[in-house]
Amino acid sequence: MGVFEAPPNLSGHEQVVFCQDKHSGLKAIIAVYSTALGPALGGTRFYPYESEADAVRDALDLSKGMAYKNALAGLDLGGGKAVIWGDPETDKSEALLRAYGRFVESLRGRYYTACDVGTYVPDMDVIAKETRYVTGRSTENGGAGDSSILTAYGVFCGMRAAAEHRWGAASLAGRTVGVAGVGKVGRYLVKHLLDDGATVVATDVSEQARGWLATNYPQVQFVDDTDALITSDIDVYAPCALGGALNDDTVPILRASIVVGAANNQLAHPGVEKMLAERGILYAPDYLVNSGGVIQVSDEIHGFDFERAKRRASQIFEITGRILRTAESEGVPPAVAADRMAERRMAECGRLRSIYLP
After folding, report:
1. Annotated binding-site positions for NAD(+)
2. Which GO biological-process labels does this protein carry (predicted)?
3. Residues forming the annotated binding site?
4. Active site amino acids
């Protein structure tokens, strides 16, 4: 029986909404993990999942990650995420996006959407025809534009903090960084790394992405696949594609001593963070270092100012350093230290919502 026919395991989520519009072909899932800190904010992923169960699982995992990400970033926002089940290359249409927008509007502000894998700024402008609760719009429409810009900048800040913690200098100069995925975020990250004096090795399944990078940054060396990348002589591994990059197969053969990347849900399952720690690999939690994008689009809610958003994203450097130091002093993996910090803020600040304000 499919998930559209039976309720999923809600896994502690506040709300999971299944959206279907047969005329446009829309099948979407909106997952709201927590609104303890404010309305849930998280992007919409448009992806051809193999099954409904895979789509629901991704929505649940991503929305929980967004709650922790927003909490650590100091935002007064909860965590949510949406997935549209389909192929964005063939299934995306104005009718489908507008139908989806109406479902977002029906939540009356409990959930704000934005871009993610398979959705782009022009898509947000279409969705905004039907709902007020959308960010990541084009600058022509008063939006923040491409959130990949500050996502990459935040990852770079987190990488510098990890380098300082491991090697004593907040720079990637003279280091070799392996970037898996040079699409939306990866290409901006590559520029930061090259400007900082790093050597970059990369891989991507997309010929278009590889071609773009080869044309613009010919000094970047390409390898055939992720296995070739992680077994090469790199100092830092940056997963910037889909989740699950750190798993039972990849961690034992990973040669990098630091992992800092833009992908969401990099740990394939609980326990991977301990495997990394046992191998002496320093892992900066993904939902911390990739929060620059959500910082950018959240600023749009209040009237976007890029410099203000960038200043806030710069704080990822300080927060990453603090978490790495806390993890070391408490003898726990950084992912555990980050989870504790996020959970503490959600509990302490969320408690205030029980205080009645007339």
Report:
1. 181-186
2. amino acid metabolic process
3. 181-186
4. 81
